[in-house]
């Protein structure tokens, strides 16, 4: 006859086995997502070409460069600034440093605001607009301006145009002719997804081990093993909190897909004032450039792996996030990683081919080099 104690033990093992099976289903679902990623097409929009030809570039023009996350103008725009044909074509090349108080190089200009990685993108866009419209900087700019935004800098540019172009920038007699976004996460990144899935897998494995200990361990070692697993749980939570404080900044949070920032940015026309809009609101030739090259960015690629995304990346940004719809021309992907999209040597054939496309978009001319 089965005693009450034996029945209790059997029921407990049955419940633990059910929990174990449930926990094992979580990584199976994750693997299913890896092979059949959810449809993100609603975020990307239709990638159309302009219905009108690109305008002829004006004869007097400024190139206005906004750098990307965590670094500066020197790191991201030296290749472009030092190109002799860029210097010949443009009346001025103005590169902004928005972090810190001092410019990173003599040819860059600091916003002087002391911004850091926790400064919202909206505040940076406002400061860039104020720098452009500051009467003390009037000698730096011609009326016609080409704008390059690299990586996070592209989000700064898009927000600035959406919020201030018609009401303040155009009102001050400035016109943006070409807006080029290079390796910009226009529809967000997946780093948070990778972090969340990685933690889900870690806690799933710890939960499975916890159940296995309860089911199969002898009474002598069960308590020690349970305590060890609980310590692992606490350590995982603590490490996650520390890493979150170190690496999850306000700007990274805003750059994630479906963040409040992206939701506000992607409402309506992705490319306002584009050449195929109704006159007189059709100033801007919008273009994007994206890469899918290998090399570098080990941790970022690891997070994308755990985000269970199937599409390629440039190491930092997934390629499907970069293109814009509503009239933008989207170039690439080029066999270049995230850094290589703004670092090149035109004496190398591959680099020259890439930069020639970029130069032609900005100037409307073939690269002379």
> How many domain regions?
2
Helix fraction bin: 40-55%
The largest sheet has its strands arranged as: 3-2-1-4-5-6-7
Dominant shape: elongated
CATH architecture label name of the largest domain: 3-Layer(aba) Sandwich
The biggest beta sheet reads: 7 strands, parallel
* Rg calc: 26 Å
Number of helices: 12
Q: Give the beta-strand count.
A: 7
What is the average of the pLDDT values? 79
Termini separation comes to 93 Å
Structural class: alpha/beta
Poorly predicted segments? 30-55
CATH topology name of the largest domain: Rossmann fold
- CATH domain class of the largest domain: Alpha Beta
SSE succession: HHEHHEEHEHEHHHHEHEH
What fraction of residues sit in β-strands? 5-15%
Annotated CATH homologous superfamily of the largest domain: Alpha/Beta hydrolase fold, catalytic domain
């Amino acid at each position: 006859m089965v005693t009450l104690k034996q029945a209790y033990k059997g029921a407990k093992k049955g419940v633990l086995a059910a929990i174990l099976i449930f926990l094992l289903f979580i990584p199976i679902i994750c693997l299913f997502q890896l092979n059949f990623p959810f449809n993100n097409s609603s975020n990307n929009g239709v990638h159309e070409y302009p219905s009108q030809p690109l305008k002829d570039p004006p004869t007097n023009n400024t190139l206005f460069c906004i750098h990307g996350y965590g670094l500066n103008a020197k790191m991201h725009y030296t290749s472009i600034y030092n190109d002799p044909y860029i210097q010949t074509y443009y009346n001025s090349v103005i590169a902004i440093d928005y972090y810190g108080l001092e410019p990173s190089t003599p040819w860059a200009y600091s916003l002087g605001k002391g911004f850091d990685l926790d400064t919202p993108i909206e505040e940076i866009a406002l400061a860039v607009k104020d720098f452009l419209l500051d009467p003390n900087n009037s000698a730096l700019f011609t009326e016609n301006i080409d704008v390059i935004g690299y990586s996070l800098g592209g989000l700064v540019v898009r927000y600035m145009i959406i919020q201030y172009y018609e009401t303040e920038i155009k009102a001050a007699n400035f016109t943006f002719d070409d807006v080029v976004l290079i390796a910009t996460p226009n529809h967000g990144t997946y780093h948070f997804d990778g972090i969340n899935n990685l933690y889900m897998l870690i806690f799933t494995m710890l939960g499975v081990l916890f159940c296995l200990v309860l089911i199969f361990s002898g009474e002598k070692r069960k308590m020690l093993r349970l305590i060890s697993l609980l310590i692992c749980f606490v350590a995982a939570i603590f490490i996650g909190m520390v890493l979150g404080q170190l690496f999850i900044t306000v700007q990274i949070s805003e750059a994630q897909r479906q963040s409040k920032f992206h939701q506000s940015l992607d409402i309506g026309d992705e490319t306002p004032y584009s050449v195929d809009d109704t006159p007189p609101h059709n100033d801007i030739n919008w273009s994007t450039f994206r890469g899918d090259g290998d090399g570098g960015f080990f941790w970022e690629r690891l997070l994308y792996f755990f985000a269970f995304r199937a599409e390629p990346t440039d190491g930092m940004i997934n390629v499907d996030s970069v293109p814009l719809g509503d009239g933008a021309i989207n170039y690439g992907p080029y066999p270049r990683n995230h850094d290589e999209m703004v670092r090149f040597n035109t004496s190398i054939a591959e680099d020259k081919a890439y930069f020639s496309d970029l130069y032609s978009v900005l100037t409307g001319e073939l690269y002379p080099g």
